[in-house]
Write a structure and sequence with these properties.
Elements (H helix, E strand, L loop, with lengths): L1 E2 L5 E2 L19 E3 L8 H4 L4 H6 L6 E8 L6 H11 L5 H13 L8 H4 L3 H6 L5 E7 L3 E7 L7 H9 L3 E7 L4 H6 L4 H11 L4 E7 L10 H17 L4 H4 E5 L25 H7 L12 E9 L3 E6 L5 E2 L3 E5 L3 E10 L2 E3 L1 E2 L4 E7 L11 E4 L6 E11 L8 E2 L3 E6 L2 E14 L13 E2 L4 E13 L11 E6 L2 E10 L8
């Protein structure tokens, strides 16, 4: 059962398996991908004022696309192919990667090397961190977030999805591989549930490896996968007709990515290619005039303190005075960067690097929020939430005292359920009269949650991206929820 965007429970016919013991999960990382030398921030600042004027907010709309799915479904290969087809990588670089992959006896992985840049990832063939790259179509600028598929790196996948506007769920059509990813224990189900909880409202289902000999662009295999996925997507809270689109592709060959499939290859397909489907996605509304909110995912030193994140609400200009919460540090914006370009002004939805004065790099943690001084983000140590319980192991009881790891925007923090306030009947959507002592799998409950350290969150009704979360224990997703109320203390800076 999941929680729909209207705050009501949805039934989930296939919950995720959960364990009880708490395990502190690692802070998620994201790594920029440098396709070619771009120069340091210092060099970028040597632009003339005329160039700076040109580098105001780009006219094209901007979308963050996260690639999710089971390990080895082909996410990194598709990401690499997109960068090649959109002119971000040249033939010489591709030839170098082909040789490197062949030397490792991994001939089919060479496109993934564009996205998987460190040696551990290349040797294992597994994405660990969240790859980040950029490409453009005629109407849209895209940031690719290549999320790990392996269950050991789900915290990093959560980091990627929390920054995304739309998701591309990659499914392998190869015989046996779809089944492995879709069945219990596979990451296809968990990634769908997490994506929905993290605010990825639009999904493109890329049925990959259609060129593989066991598939050979078979309509029957494609229809089988669509038929099995559709009920699960519905149970996860997606409106399949409105918010989901299925596409057959080959990431290795680049088929149906930038140009439509020729009839000679796939006579039964009449739909768009991936680039067209991405262009057609409606941009989620963000308020450029609202209070500024930018959860921080990283920080570093470069001629001062530089913070990174995605603007979830409001706008920012060079020279603005802002707050870093929860430590209430007043900072001044010295410079703004979108991708590699220095700009003077940026609106919601942009991935920014912001150089600030007034705070040291070591005083900033992932999960802090850069926000407006007039309406700062609330900082709390407890809150009330609506929670959808997925699946617990036989020896686990969800009751007061239950501990888990909370993931909310870029925050990763240990938490404890301190009070089960009321249980909601999933059929009538009304509270049950008796206060629960514990709840079971599939329950929908209102509870009070406490964390060890001060965290920055919002009510879901005010800011969705700062008000939806997941609870995980020992590598499993236990529950999903929405923040419904905050204590009075903490609502003022």
């Amino acid at each position: 059962m999941t929680i729909a965007d209207d705050g009501k429970p949805d039934e989930d016919e296939n919950p995720v398996e959960i364990n009880k013991p708490v395990e502190k999960e690692p802070q998620a990382n994201s790594r920029p991908i440098h396709i070619e030398p771009k120069g340091s921030i210092e060099e970028k600042e040597k632009k003339t004022s005329a160039q700076d004027d040109e580098a105001e907010i780009p006219k094209k709309r901007h979308l963050n696309v996260v690639f999710i799915g089971h390990v080895d479904a082909g996410k990194s290969t598709i990401g690499g192919q997109i960068l090649f087809l959109s002119g971000q990588v040249d033939d010489r670089t591709i030839q170098k990667y082909e040789k490197e992959a062949k030397d490792k006896s991994r001939e089919s992985w060479y496109m993934a090397y564009i996205m998987d840049t460190n040696e551990e990832e290349r040797d294992k063939g597994i994405t660990v961190e969240v790859g980040r790259a950029h490409f453009q179509t005629e109407t849209t600028r895209f940031t690719i977030l290549d999320a790990p598929g392996h269950k050991s790196y789900v915290p990093n996948m959560i980091s990627g999805a929390s920054q995304a506007d739309i998701g591309v769920l990659v499914i392998s059509a190869r015989k046996g591989e779809f089944e492995t990813g879709y069945e219990r224990g596979g990451q296809t189900r968990e990634h769908v549930l997490l994506a929905k909880t993290l605010g990825v409202t639009k999904l493109i289902i890329a049925v990959n490896k259609m060129d593989e000999p066991t598939v050979n662009w078979s309509k029957e295999r494609y229809d089988e996968i669509e038929g099995k996925m559709t009920p699960f997507l519905k149970s996860s809270g997606y409106n399949v007709k409105k918010d989901v689109r299925f596409l057959p592709i080959s990431g290795l060959l680049g088929s149906n990515l930038k140009t439509q499939l020729p009839k000679s290859v796939c006579p039964w397909w009449n739909g768009p290619c991936l680039f067209e489907a991405l262009d057609a996605v409606e941009v989620p509304y963000r308020d450029p005039n609202g209070p500024f909110r930018m959860p921080l995912i990283d920080k570093f030193k470069d001629m001062g303190t530089v913070v990174m994140g995605k603007v979830e609400n409001g706008s920012v200009r060079e020279g603005d005075s802002l707050l870093v919460m929860p430590n209430k540090a007043h900072v001044k914006v010295l410079a703004l960067f979108i991708d590699e370009d220095k700009v003077r002004h940026a609106g919601p939805g942009e991935n920014l690097r912001v150089r600030v004065s007034g705070i040291e790099e070591e005083d900033i943690l992932s999960g802090f929020v850069l926000c407006s001084v007039v309406r700062p983000v609330p900082a709390v140590t407890e809150f009330i939430a609506q929670l959808s319980i997925l699946e617990l192991l036989d020896n686990a009881i969800f009751t007061a005292g239950y501990k888990a790891v909370l993931h909310i925007h870029s925050v990763v923090e240990e938490c404890e359920i301190v009070d089960l306030m009321q249980e909601i009947d999933p059929k009538t959507k009304k509270p049950k009269k008796k206060k629960p002592l514990f709840v079971k799998n599939g329950a929908f409950v209102v509870c009070r949650i406490q964390v060890n350290n001060m965290i920055c969150i919002e009510k879901f009704s005010d800011f969705q991206q700062l008000g939806r979360f997941t609870l995980r224990t020992e590598g499993k997703t236990v529950a999903m929820g929405k923040v419904t109320a905050l204590p009075t203390v903490g609502e003022s800076a």
